[in-house]
Design a protein that fits this description.
The structure is a homodimer of 146-residue chains. The first copy, chain A, has 146 residues and is mostly helical. Chain A is built from 6 helices and 2 strands; from the N terminus they run αααββααα. The first copy, chain A, has a single domain (10-144), classed as Winged helix-like DNA-binding domain superfamily/Winged helix DNA-binding domain (Arc Repressor Mutant, subunit A), CATH 1.10.10. A two-stranded antiparallel sheet of chain A has the order 1-2. The longest helix of chain A is centred in the last third of the chain and has 21 residues, at 107-127. The mean pLDDT of chain A is 94. The structure holds a DNA duplex (30 and 30 nucleotides).
Chain lengths: 146, 146
DNA sequence: TAATTTGTAACTATAATGGTTACAAATATG
DNA sequence: CATATTTGTAACCATTATAGTTACAAATTA
Protein backbone atom coordinates (compact mmCIF):
# COMPACT_ATOMS: atom_id res chain seq x y z
CA UNK A 1 0.00 0.00 0.00
CA UNK A 2 1.14 3.51 -0.71
CA UNK A 3 -0.27 6.10 1.64
CA UNK A 4 0.12 9.68 0.67
CA UNK A 5 0.04 11.36 4.02
CA UNK A 6 0.89 14.37 2.08
CA UNK A 7 -0.32 15.27 -1.35
CA UNK A 8 1.07 18.71 -0.83
CA UNK A 9 3.32 19.63 -3.71
CA UNK A 10 3.99 23.18 -2.63
CA UNK A 11 7.40 22.46 -1.19
CA UNK A 12 8.56 20.72 -4.36
CA UNK A 13 7.12 23.55 -6.43
CA UNK A 14 8.93 26.11 -4.29
CA UNK A 15 12.28 24.41 -4.66
CA UNK A 16 11.75 23.92 -8.37
CA UNK A 17 10.91 27.59 -8.87
CA UNK A 18 13.88 28.76 -6.85
CA UNK A 19 16.20 26.44 -8.76
CA UNK A 20 14.87 27.85 -11.99
CA UNK A 21 15.48 31.41 -10.81
CA UNK A 22 18.98 30.45 -9.71
CA UNK A 23 19.67 29.19 -13.22
CA UNK A 24 18.54 32.44 -14.84
CA UNK A 25 20.03 35.89 -14.50
CA UNK A 26 16.92 37.84 -15.42
CA UNK A 27 13.59 37.81 -13.59
CA UNK A 28 11.12 35.15 -14.71
CA UNK A 29 7.38 35.64 -15.02
CA UNK A 30 4.88 33.45 -13.19
CA UNK A 31 3.93 32.21 -16.63
CA UNK A 32 7.47 31.05 -17.40
CA UNK A 33 7.92 29.41 -14.02
CA UNK A 34 4.54 27.72 -14.32
CA UNK A 35 5.57 26.31 -17.68
CA UNK A 36 8.66 24.64 -16.22
CA UNK A 37 6.87 23.47 -13.07
CA UNK A 38 3.87 22.24 -15.02
CA UNK A 39 1.13 24.17 -13.33
CA UNK A 40 -0.89 27.36 -13.43
CA UNK A 41 0.62 30.86 -13.01
CA UNK A 42 -1.70 31.59 -10.10
CA UNK A 43 -0.37 28.60 -8.23
CA UNK A 44 3.11 30.00 -8.76
CA UNK A 45 2.13 33.44 -7.53
CA UNK A 46 0.67 31.96 -4.41
CA UNK A 47 3.79 29.94 -3.77
CA UNK A 48 6.16 32.79 -4.51
CA UNK A 49 4.20 35.17 -2.31
CA UNK A 50 5.02 32.93 0.65
CA UNK A 51 8.69 32.93 -0.28
CA UNK A 52 8.67 36.69 -0.58
CA UNK A 53 7.48 37.02 3.00
CA UNK A 54 10.74 35.43 4.10
CA UNK A 55 12.76 37.68 1.79
CA UNK A 56 13.78 34.74 -0.33
CA UNK A 57 12.46 36.23 -3.57
CA UNK A 58 11.36 39.61 -4.92
CA UNK A 59 8.66 40.48 -7.39
CA UNK A 60 8.07 43.30 -9.81
CA UNK A 61 4.84 44.08 -11.62
CA UNK A 62 4.52 45.21 -15.20
CA UNK A 63 6.46 44.81 -18.39
CA UNK A 64 9.81 43.07 -17.86
CA UNK A 65 8.70 42.32 -14.35
CA UNK A 66 8.60 38.91 -12.71
CA UNK A 67 10.33 37.03 -9.93
CA UNK A 68 13.96 37.01 -8.88
CA UNK A 69 16.01 35.70 -5.98
CA UNK A 70 16.57 38.12 -3.14
CA UNK A 71 19.75 36.29 -2.13
CA UNK A 72 22.49 34.11 -3.55
CA UNK A 73 21.35 30.53 -4.12
CA UNK A 74 23.90 29.22 -1.68
CA UNK A 75 22.37 31.41 1.02
CA UNK A 76 18.93 29.82 0.60
CA UNK A 77 18.61 26.70 2.71
CA UNK A 78 15.79 24.26 2.03
CA UNK A 79 14.65 24.33 5.64
CA UNK A 80 13.85 28.00 5.27
CA UNK A 81 11.99 27.26 2.06
CA UNK A 82 10.10 24.57 3.90
CA UNK A 83 9.15 27.03 6.60
CA UNK A 84 7.69 29.37 4.01
CA UNK A 85 4.81 26.89 3.79
CA UNK A 86 3.69 27.95 7.23
CA UNK A 87 3.54 25.93 10.39
CA UNK A 88 3.61 22.48 8.93
CA UNK A 89 3.19 19.37 11.03
CA UNK A 90 4.20 16.23 9.23
CA UNK A 91 2.90 14.14 12.10
CA UNK A 92 -0.44 15.00 13.62
CA UNK A 93 -1.76 14.22 17.07
CA UNK A 94 -5.25 12.76 16.97
CA UNK A 95 -8.23 14.87 17.80
CA UNK A 96 -10.33 13.70 20.72
CA UNK A 97 -8.66 11.27 23.10
CA UNK A 98 -10.74 10.41 26.15
CA UNK A 99 -9.75 12.80 28.94
CA UNK A 100 -11.20 10.42 31.52
CA UNK A 101 -8.73 7.69 30.60
CA UNK A 102 -5.29 7.95 32.17
CA UNK A 103 -3.71 7.13 28.82
CA UNK A 104 -6.08 9.19 26.68
CA UNK A 105 -5.87 12.09 29.05
CA UNK A 106 -2.11 12.35 28.94
CA UNK A 107 -0.89 11.00 25.63
CA UNK A 108 -1.33 14.09 23.45
CA UNK A 109 1.48 16.04 25.05
CA UNK A 110 3.81 13.06 24.97
CA UNK A 111 3.07 12.40 21.32
CA UNK A 112 3.49 16.04 20.43
CA UNK A 113 6.95 16.18 21.92
CA UNK A 114 7.99 13.04 20.05
CA UNK A 115 6.53 14.42 16.82
CA UNK A 116 8.32 17.72 17.35
CA UNK A 117 11.58 15.91 17.84
CA UNK A 118 11.12 13.88 14.67
CA UNK A 119 10.15 16.90 12.62
CA UNK A 120 13.10 18.82 13.93
CA UNK A 121 15.37 16.07 12.59
CA UNK A 122 13.63 16.28 9.24
CA UNK A 123 14.15 20.02 9.11
CA UNK A 124 17.76 19.65 10.17
CA UNK A 125 18.27 17.38 7.19
CA UNK A 126 16.65 19.91 4.87
CA UNK A 127 18.84 22.64 6.29
CA UNK A 128 21.79 20.70 4.94
CA UNK A 129 20.82 21.57 1.37
CA UNK A 130 20.76 24.92 -0.41
CA UNK A 131 19.21 25.97 -3.69
CA UNK A 132 22.76 26.09 -5.05
CA UNK A 133 23.18 22.41 -4.19
CA UNK A 134 19.97 21.49 -5.96
CA UNK A 135 20.88 23.46 -9.05
CA UNK A 136 24.30 21.83 -9.16
CA UNK A 137 22.80 18.35 -8.94
CA UNK A 138 20.15 19.12 -11.55
CA UNK A 139 22.73 20.45 -13.99
CA UNK A 140 24.91 17.43 -13.36
CA UNK A 141 22.02 15.18 -14.35
CA UNK A 142 21.17 17.39 -17.31
CA UNK A 143 24.71 17.15 -18.67
CA UNK A 144 25.17 13.51 -17.81
CA UNK A 145 22.11 12.46 -19.78
CA UNK A 146 22.49 14.96 -22.65
CA UNK B 1 -0.71 30.32 8.81
CA UNK B 2 -1.02 26.71 9.82
CA UNK B 3 -0.79 24.27 6.98
CA UNK B 4 -1.83 20.75 7.69
CA UNK B 5 0.25 18.89 5.18
CA UNK B 6 -1.01 15.92 6.98
CA UNK B 7 -4.41 15.44 8.50
CA UNK B 8 -3.58 11.81 8.94
CA UNK B 9 -4.13 10.77 12.52
CA UNK B 10 -3.47 7.09 11.96
CA UNK B 11 0.03 7.17 13.37
CA UNK B 12 -1.08 8.91 16.55
CA UNK B 13 -3.98 6.48 16.84
CA UNK B 14 -1.63 3.52 16.41
CA UNK B 15 0.73 4.70 19.11
CA UNK B 16 -2.14 5.51 21.42
CA UNK B 17 -3.67 2.06 20.96
CA UNK B 18 -0.36 0.30 21.51
CA UNK B 19 0.31 2.33 24.63
CA UNK B 20 -3.09 1.35 25.94
CA UNK B 21 -2.41 -2.32 25.26
CA UNK B 22 0.97 -1.99 26.97
CA UNK B 23 -0.78 -0.64 30.05
CA UNK B 24 -3.22 -3.56 30.21
CA UNK B 25 -2.47 -7.21 30.79
CA UNK B 26 -5.62 -8.58 29.16
CA UNK B 27 -6.69 -8.14 25.55
CA UNK B 28 -8.77 -5.06 24.81
CA UNK B 29 -11.70 -4.92 22.43
CA UNK B 30 -11.83 -2.49 19.53
CA UNK B 31 -14.68 -0.88 21.43
CA UNK B 32 -12.54 -0.27 24.51
CA UNK B 33 -9.62 1.06 22.49
CA UNK B 34 -11.93 3.28 20.48
CA UNK B 35 -13.32 4.72 23.69
CA UNK B 36 -9.89 5.79 24.88
CA UNK B 37 -8.75 7.01 21.47
CA UNK B 38 -12.02 8.84 20.87
CA UNK B 39 -13.07 7.25 17.61
CA UNK B 40 -15.07 4.43 16.09
CA UNK B 41 -14.28 0.73 16.63
CA UNK B 42 -14.00 0.20 12.89
CA UNK B 43 -11.29 2.82 12.65
CA UNK B 44 -9.45 0.91 15.36
CA UNK B 45 -9.84 -2.41 13.58
CA UNK B 46 -8.46 -0.95 10.40
CA UNK B 47 -5.51 0.53 12.24
CA UNK B 48 -4.81 -2.60 14.22
CA UNK B 49 -5.04 -4.78 11.14
CA UNK B 50 -2.04 -2.89 9.72
CA UNK B 51 -0.11 -3.41 12.93
CA UNK B 52 -0.94 -7.09 12.88
CA UNK B 53 0.65 -7.45 9.47
CA UNK B 54 3.97 -6.49 11.04
CA UNK B 55 3.39 -8.87 13.96
CA UNK B 56 3.13 -6.02 16.40
CA UNK B 57 -0.30 -7.04 17.68
CA UNK B 58 -2.52 -10.10 17.67
CA UNK B 59 -6.28 -10.39 17.51
CA UNK B 60 -8.82 -12.92 18.64
CA UNK B 61 -12.45 -13.06 17.65
CA UNK B 62 -15.36 -13.88 19.91
CA UNK B 63 -16.15 -13.58 23.57
CA UNK B 64 -13.15 -12.43 25.62
CA UNK B 65 -11.38 -11.75 22.39
CA UNK B 66 -9.75 -8.50 21.38
CA UNK B 67 -6.30 -7.11 20.71
CA UNK B 68 -3.04 -7.71 22.48
CA UNK B 69 0.62 -6.94 21.91
CA UNK B 70 2.60 -9.59 20.10
CA UNK B 71 5.83 -8.37 21.72
CA UNK B 72 7.11 -6.57 24.76
CA UNK B 73 6.48 -2.80 24.61
CA UNK B 74 10.19 -2.08 24.72
CA UNK B 75 10.63 -4.19 21.59
CA UNK B 76 8.19 -2.05 19.59
CA UNK B 77 9.92 0.95 18.05
CA UNK B 78 7.86 3.83 16.76
CA UNK B 79 9.55 3.71 13.39
CA UNK B 80 8.15 0.27 12.85
CA UNK B 81 4.73 1.48 13.91
CA UNK B 82 5.11 4.32 11.46
CA UNK B 83 5.94 1.87 8.70
CA UNK B 84 2.73 -0.03 9.39
CA UNK B 85 0.96 2.87 7.71
CA UNK B 86 2.39 1.80 4.40
CA UNK B 87 4.82 3.58 2.17
CA UNK B 88 4.42 7.07 3.51
CA UNK B 89 6.05 10.05 1.91
CA UNK B 90 6.01 13.13 4.09
CA UNK B 91 7.45 15.20 1.26
CA UNK B 92 6.03 14.77 -2.20
CA UNK B 93 7.61 15.54 -5.54
CA UNK B 94 5.34 17.55 -7.80
CA UNK B 95 3.48 15.90 -10.59
CA UNK B 96 4.21 17.19 -14.06
CA UNK B 97 7.42 19.16 -14.45
CA UNK B 98 8.20 20.14 -18.03
CA UNK B 99 10.44 17.46 -19.50
CA UNK B 100 11.60 19.84 -22.21
CA UNK B 101 13.13 22.19 -19.66
CA UNK B 102 16.60 21.30 -18.41
CA UNK B 103 15.52 22.08 -14.86
CA UNK B 104 12.05 20.58 -15.11
CA UNK B 105 13.37 17.52 -16.86
CA UNK B 106 15.90 16.68 -14.17
CA UNK B 107 14.68 18.02 -10.87
CA UNK B 108 12.37 15.20 -9.82
CA UNK B 109 15.15 12.73 -9.15
CA UNK B 110 17.20 15.30 -7.28
CA UNK B 111 14.25 16.30 -5.13
CA UNK B 112 13.34 12.71 -4.44
CA UNK B 113 16.79 11.92 -3.10
CA UNK B 114 16.72 14.97 -0.84
CA UNK B 115 13.24 14.05 0.37
CA UNK B 116 14.32 10.47 1.01
CA UNK B 117 17.25 11.71 3.03
CA UNK B 118 15.05 13.99 5.12
CA UNK B 119 12.46 11.30 5.72
CA UNK B 120 15.12 8.85 6.71
CA UNK B 121 16.22 11.28 9.43
CA UNK B 122 12.63 11.56 10.60
CA UNK B 123 12.31 7.81 10.80
CA UNK B 124 15.63 7.53 12.58
CA UNK B 125 14.28 9.89 15.22
CA UNK B 126 11.12 7.81 15.59
CA UNK B 127 13.21 4.67 15.92
CA UNK B 128 14.66 6.21 19.08
CA UNK B 129 11.36 5.73 20.90
CA UNK B 130 9.54 2.57 21.91
CA UNK B 131 6.01 1.98 23.11
CA UNK B 132 7.54 1.39 26.55
CA UNK B 133 9.02 4.91 26.46
CA UNK B 134 5.68 6.42 25.56
CA UNK B 135 3.86 4.54 28.28
CA UNK B 136 6.43 5.60 30.84
CA UNK B 137 6.09 9.27 29.88
CA UNK B 138 2.31 9.10 29.84
CA UNK B 139 2.19 7.52 33.30
CA UNK B 140 4.63 10.11 34.57
CA UNK B 141 2.28 12.85 33.40
CA UNK B 142 -0.73 11.02 34.79
CA UNK B 143 0.84 10.75 38.23
CA UNK B 144 2.32 14.22 38.19
CA UNK B 145 -1.05 15.84 37.53
CA UNK B 146 -3.13 13.51 39.70
C1' DT C 1 -27.69 -21.89 20.45
C1' DA C 2 -26.77 -17.28 21.80
C1' DA C 3 -23.65 -13.67 22.80
C1' DT C 4 -19.45 -11.60 21.74
C1' DT C 5 -16.05 -9.88 18.90
C1' DT C 6 -13.25 -9.32 14.80
C1' DG C 7 -13.21 -8.71 9.42
C1' DT C 8 -14.46 -6.02 5.82
C1' DA C 9 -17.14 -3.84 2.27
C1' DA C 10 -19.71 0.13 1.24
C1' DC C 11 -21.18 4.64 1.78
C1' DT C 12 -21.02 9.57 3.51
C1' DA C 13 -19.37 14.09 5.21
C1' DT C 14 -15.66 16.99 5.66
C1' DA C 15 -11.63 19.24 4.47
C1' DA C 16 -7.34 20.11 1.92
C1' DT C 17 -5.40 20.82 -2.35
C1' DG C 18 -4.56 22.42 -6.79
C1' DG C 19 -6.46 24.30 -10.81
C1' DT C 20 -9.00 28.00 -12.97
C1' DT C 21 -11.37 32.40 -13.98
C1' DA C 22 -11.76 37.08 -13.35
C1' DC C 23 -10.37 41.41 -12.54
C1' DA C 24 -7.85 45.18 -9.97
C1' DA C 25 -3.31 47.37 -9.30
C1' DA C 26 1.24 48.42 -10.64
C1' DT C 27 4.75 49.22 -14.01
C1' DA C 28 7.19 49.89 -18.34
C1' DT C 29 7.26 51.49 -23.12
C1' DG C 30 6.42 54.20 -27.00
C1' DC D 1 -1.06 59.49 -21.98
C1' DA D 2 -2.48 54.94 -23.78
C1' DT D 3 -1.41 50.33 -24.08
C1' DA D 4 0.60 46.09 -23.02
C1' DT D 5 2.54 43.46 -19.48
C1' DT D 6 2.67 41.43 -15.17
C1' DT D 7 1.72 40.70 -10.32
C1' DG D 8 -2.05 40.46 -6.43
C1' DT D 9 -5.87 38.26 -4.87
C1' DA D 10 -10.53 36.78 -4.27
C1' DA D 11 -13.71 33.39 -5.59
C1' DC D 12 -15.09 29.11 -7.14
C1' DC D 13 -14.73 24.17 -8.70
C1' DA D 14 -13.09 19.28 -9.09
C1' DT D 15 -10.56 15.86 -7.10
C1' DT D 16 -8.91 13.27 -3.45
C1' DA D 17 -7.84 11.63 1.20
C1' DT D 18 -9.55 10.84 5.54
C1' DA D 19 -12.33 9.52 9.21
C1' DG D 20 -16.65 8.23 10.58
C1' DT D 21 -20.53 5.17 10.11
C1' DT D 22 -23.67 1.26 8.98
C1' DA D 23 -24.26 -3.29 8.00
C1' DC D 24 -23.45 -7.86 8.04
C1' DA D 25 -20.49 -12.17 7.62
C1' DA D 26 -17.18 -15.12 10.13
C1' DA D 27 -15.06 -16.78 14.16
C1' DT D 28 -15.07 -17.91 18.90
C1' DT D 29 -16.66 -18.72 23.54
C1' DA D 30 -19.75 -20.31 26.92
Amino acid sequence: MVTNMNTNQRFAISVHALTLLAANADPLTSEAIASSVGTNPVVIRRTMASLRELDIVESKSGTNGGWSLAREPKKIGLCEVYRSLGEVNVLTVHGHPNKLCSIGGNISGVLQSVFDDAQSELEKALAGYTVADILKDVLKKANGSA
